[in-house]
Amino acid sequence: MTAPSTARDVARRILAARFEPGVDRDPADPSPVFELARFQEDAVRRAEQILAARRGVVIADSVGLGKTFIALALIEGALRRGERVAVTTPASLRTAWHAPLRRLAGALALRETYGIPRPPPARVGRRPTAARAPEHAFLAWFSHARLSRGTVPAARTDSLDLVVVDEAHAFRNPGTRRYRALAALCRPARVVLLTATPVNNALPDLYALLRLFVGDDAFRDVGVPDLREAFRTAAGGNGAPPTELHAVLRAVVIRRTRAVLRREYGGARVPGTPHRAPSLPRRAPPVPVRYALDRVYPGFFAEIAETIEALDLAQLSVARRTAGPAPAAVLVRMALLKRLESSIAAFRASINRQVRFHEAFLEALGRGRLLLPADHRALYDGGDDDVAQLVLTAVALDALPPDVDARRLRSRALRDLERLRRIRRKLATLAAEDDPKLCRLRALLDGELHAEKVVVFTEFLDTARYLWSALVPRGGIALVDGQAARLGRMPCTRNAAIARFAPHANHAPAPGPRERVDLLIATDVLAEGLNLQDARCVISYDLPWNPVRLIQRIGRVDRIGTRHATIRSFHFLPDGGLERVLRVRARLRAKLAAIAASVGAEPEVLADAEGTAPLDAVIDRLTAGDPDALEVLEHRTAAPLELEERLRAAYAAECARAERDAATAGHGARSAAGAPNGGVAHGDPIPTGGRAPPAAAIAAPPGAHRRFLLAYDDAGTSIWILVDAETGTAVEDDAAAAELLLDALADGSRPMRPPRRRDIARAVAAAAPRLEARRAIQGAPARIPAGAPAARAARRLAAALRAVPGGPDTDLCRRADAVLAALAHGQSAGTEAAVRHALASTPDGADALRLLTALEHAFDRPDDRASRDRATCRAELVGVLEARPAPPAT
User: Fold this and answer.
1) How distant is the alpha carbon of residue 196 from its chain centre?
2) How far apart are CA 129 and CA 106, in angstroms?
3) pTM of structure
4) Which run of H or of E encompasses 344?
5) Nearest alpha-carbon partner for 547 in 605, 618, 609, 603
6) Cβ-count burial of 283 within 10 angstroms (0-12 exposed, 13-18 middle, 19+ buried)?
7) Pairing between strand 490-492 and 519-523?
8) How confident is the model at residue 367 (pLDDT cuts 50, 70, 90)?
9) pLDDT (0 to 100) of residue 346
10) Residue 569 pLDDT level (bands cut at 50, 70, 90)
11) Which of 333-337's residues contact partners 24+ apart within 8 Å by CB, and which partners?
12) Helix, strand or coil for residue 140?
């Protein structure tokens, strides 16, 4: 192979080692059922590669970029191979998924489906085509709710090959029934997770999703020896994935934002649309809508905020058995402030609920009983039978703990009750017609947005119904609030309201002029997954304290395929009095953090309170009319992968350029593109020495800080180490490495000018310890904690084999080696649960054959996990059998 002569050549070879070209579709393959945009086709190819290497992929493109169609293409490929496929989505997306799945089943002539409407019968005399899937192909759909209820039939979802999960962030809690049910389905299958927010509240969200298809040792090849430990270490950060997890994200996550598509693909034009029709609209700068509550209610909201901050809520401290303030009490105050910012109606409903709870709490306290909020909801929210409630209070509530000072607790609760009643009396003086926030909404709808289709989003059901009640006389209005839906004043189904508002996007017949709906009021129940792109205007009537919700709201109308060139968003922001509310919120947030530091609080509590980005910063940007205010939120979660996308696009452009040059010169296309051929090429021989893998070096351009990028190709793993030539320090810094590579590609005429040999030798020596550490991680055997189910299973199986009279026969040894080798690797959540079940179902002392049979069922295909010789399997198991003894059972 000819050595590269320019920096561009070296950069191209370095990128080729990381971005192996995908396999293009064979022209002889049948035409796909769904035509895709080019960026979606690229995602399908990459997802297939990731699925083959990792068994799972997270497709996390931004809201509205067509993740569903990427998944449909993956489903189609699996069905054409005769595989068994299951799709699970929120029940609210049933209609959105049923239509394409029904079309897919019909096009492939599937004989067996579950949960999908039957496709129309084939025309008589129609001959089979090459598009028909094999007879044993199977496609199922079921909702997340069915997983929660445990009503998915096991017989129809056994031995799946592919599981697709839409809105996968709903499975971020491993302690739920729905997560355990999904993990069991994913155990033998490849897994496709669709979510625009893989980190919805905190980093453990992403860890839980990855564990659906990988074990904790799955990323040793990219330098992460223990996934669980990596996430635990990273949990103390600011919510964004830290550097040590970037390699994990690159390995399994596909994440493109609108900025990436515009820059790298020139947009995202949908097949079949006219060339002039924009399919990826432009977002107009967000418009702040200021409202001044203090002009109508001078000093009122500052007083309310102070009263809320002063609430004691002592009963919640008693419930947690803590001497200091309980996190729940701080969260209650924060929730009241959220509702106050949303609407008078939402705040009034919350205050009324708090008054009723405190009255019931004091009544129970007088009988020596402790009433908790959950007890109050169960006993008092269902009716007004005072006699029945008295009886239930006496028998259903716990007695007040003897160490609690009942008199002091009563005094504190009475003070809170008086504060709440005082707030309620003040609220009674406020009328809807005087509400300045509602007046601003009316003015906006009647003025700037007249004749526009508009979606108004709010966090709270009470606010949604308040707005609906005030605006329904206008006509042309629909409401969807999570519990009910209405067209005008009439109740209807949720799907009917959506279809009436957005018929084009939902393939529904256009309504007549008198039935037309131009205003949809919705809670955030509609902020995920649904198509509302008949509209181009979104109003956020309140600010969700997890700002990612703002992106999800706009994503309902900002979707590929929209007929609108520009999407507009309006955000109601408090002026004057409610700014005091936000300052109180900041103090409460600081107090919550202090409580967590002193007495410990659940990470989920802190995450729910904090959100994924500081709301204050978002408010500042929106108030200033920053046109990039919302893009900053997307960039925050996508930054590590945006850099990857830039490099990938640069490499693709280089390949295309080289192919054009080769075609012009009459040479072969792909060979000149710089694709890897036996390792990474390098300009001058690099003395890596010893066991070091092949390497390439690229230097910073003249005049820049003196540094080198050493790119190693180690058994298919690309390792980039940046060496500072002046200090001799070596780091893995992908951002700085990308800067060097992109600079080299941009300046194609710059000669390679290899550095002096002694400088290269010095750089290689500086990088050697870090490279050896990476290689040690890659080659080390798995170390499974002694108390893990796999370790307990390995010890029990080894003991059972030793107890076989005369020793186990050859067949038993072969089967045992396969299972032991599988146990020596980290297991996914579903497999780990299956191993735990196998141990529970076989008593201690069970014979080897019985235990082995139970463990074989835990691994769908144990031989696939361990196709190596027995000596290698046993060597890998050393980390399990030589682990420290398990702690004694209690």
Assistant:
1) 6
2) 12
3) 0.82
4) helix 344-366
5) 618
6) middle
7) unpaired
8) confident
9) 93
10) very high
11) 333/308, 333/309, 333/588, 334/545, 334/585, 334/588, 334/589, 334/592, 334/609, 336/308, 337/305, 337/308, 337/581, 337/584, 337/585, 337/588
12) strand
Instruction: Judge contact between 792 and 827, C-beta under 8 A.
Output: no
C-alpha distances (whole Å) from 397 to each of 305, 323, 359, 379, 393 are: 33, 22, 16, 10, 6
| Residue 145 identity (one-letter amino acid) | A
Q: What contacts 732, CB < 8 A, 6 or more positions away?
A: 223, 243, 719, 720, 721, 722, 770
Q: What tokens were used for 675?
A: 């694709």
Strand spans (E) along 450-608: 454-458, 477-480, 485-487, 490-492, 519-523, 537-540, 566-575
Q: Is 568 helix (H, G, I), strand (E, B) or coil?
A: strand
Question: Which residues partner with 723 through β-bridges?
Answer: 708, 730
The Cα–Cα gap between 819 and 855 comes to 7
For residue 433, the 8-state DSSP code is G
One-letter identity of residue 699: A
User: Do 40 and 64 form a contact (C-beta atoms < 8 A)?
Assistant: no
State both tokens at 118. Answer: 């039957």
Question: What is the SS3 string spanning 830-848?
Answer: HHHHHHHHHHHHCCCCCCH
Q: How far is the C-alpha of 337 from the C-alpha of 305, rounded, in Å? A: 7
As given in the structure block, the two tokens for residue 715 are 């058994």
Residue 96 in contact with residue 529, Cβ under 8 Å?
yes
Look up tokens 């129609």; give the residue: 126
Angle at which helix 789-802 crosses helix 848-858, to 10 degrees, equals: 150
Q: Is the dihedral of CA 558, 563, 565, 570 positive or negative?
A: negative
SS3 147: helix
> Which distant-in-sequence residues (6+ apart) come within 8 Å of 669 by Cβ?
659, 662, 663
Number of Cα atoms under 13 Å in the Cβ half of residue 599? 13
Query: What is 719-756 written as a DSSP string?
Result: EEEEEETTT--EE--HHHHHHHHHHHHH-TTSB--PPP
| Residue spans of alpha helices (H) in 472-546 | 494-501
Question: Cα separations (Å) of 331 from 194, 203, 318?
Answer: 31, 21, 16
Which is nearest to 640 in space by CA: 196, 251, 230, 220?
251
pLDDT digits (tens, 9 = 90+) for 688-719: 555 556 678 888 877 777 888 888 887 677 88
- At 291, which helix (H) or strand (E)? strand 287-292
Q: Which amino acid is it at 345?
A: A
Instruction: For residue 426, give both structure tokens.
Output: 């003040």
Q: How far apart are CA 437 and CA 572, in angstroms?
A: 8
Q: How far apart are CA 729 and CA 741, in angstroms?
A: 19
- Residue 688 has what pLDDT? 52
User: Do strands 537-540 and 454-458 pair parallel, antiparallel, or not at all (unpaired)?
Assistant: parallel
For Cα atoms 888, 889, 890, give the angle at the middle one, nearest 5 degrees.
Answer: 115
Residue 566, phi then psi, degrees to nearest 5: -135, 140
Record the tokens describing residue 369, joined without a space. Answer: 């009983």
581 sits in which H/E element? helix 577-599
* Separation of alpha carbons 828 and 102, rounded Å: 31
Q: Which amino acid is at 701?
A: P
d(CA 586, CA 600): 20
Cβ–Cβ under 8 Å, residues 160 and 188? yes
Angle at 784 between CA 781 and CA 785, to 5 degrees: 145
Helices (H) and strands (E) in the chain, counts: 34, 22
Mean pLDDT of 624-639: 70
C-alpha–C-alpha distance, residues 396 and 374, integer Å? 12
The token pair that represents 102 in the structure block: 């029904």
How far is the CA of 193 from the CAs of 57, 152, 815, in angstroms?
6, 19, 33
- What whole-number distance in Å separates Cα of residue 43 and Cα of residue 553? 24
Q: Are 553 and 543 within 8 A, CB to CB?
A: no
User: What's the length of the chain?
Assistant: 890
Most confident of 375-379, 743-747, 775-779, 839-843: 839-843
Can you tell me the distance from the alpha carbon of 338 to that of 342, in angstroms, rounded to the nearest whole number?
A: 6
Tokens of 716: 């298919």
